[in-house]
């Protein structure tokens, strides 16, 4: 068995595509009517499709999952976040763990938790 993708629910597909393209460099692989596959295996699904399929409400900022990215130049990335057109809601500002890894946590446009950390070698 092989994990192929991770799906997150978003309220505005186009704005989420822009967010992940502008900040993380992800590109659209397939755009199929409310379902978008991006590079690195990230799938965006329209909130209404998800709600109809599950017949349950979507709960933003539920802090049950996290997308994890690595970035060597994390200070530059945080500057990119701060200078972007997006209103970034931080969970943790840039910090350094006792083992030397730097990281920052924030929410995407729909309350999906994201962590960006420096690689651990």
Report a brief summary of the structure.
With 121 residues, the chain is an alpha/beta fold.
Structural overview:
With 121 residues, the protein is an alpha/beta fold. The protein has a single domain (6-117), classed as 2,3-Dihydroxybiphenyl 1,2-Dioxygenase, domain 1 (Roll), CATH 3.10.180. The protein is 25% helix and 34% strand. The protein contains 3 helices and 8 strands. The chain has helices spanning 13-24, 47-54, 74-83; strands spanning 6-10, 28-31, 35-38, 42-46, 67-70, 89-96, 102-107, 113-117. The strands form 2 sheets. A 4-stranded mixed beta sheet has the order 1-4-3-2. 12% of the residues are buried.
The percent range for strand residues is 25-35%
SS class: alpha/beta
Mean pLDDT: 96
User: How many domain modules?
Assistant: 1
Sheet bearing the most strands, described?
4 strands, mixed
Q: Tally the beta strands.
A: 8
Task: Enumerate the spans where pLDDT stays under 50 for 5 or more consecutive residues.
Answer: none
Rg from alpha-carbon coordinates: 15 Å
* Separation of the first and last Cα atoms: 28 Å
**Looking at this structure, what is the CATH superfamily?**
2,3-Dihydroxybiphenyl 1,2-Dioxygenase, domain 1
Across the major sheet, the strand order is 1-4-3-2
Top CATH class: Alpha Beta
Helix content: 10-25%
Q: What's the number of helices?
A: 3
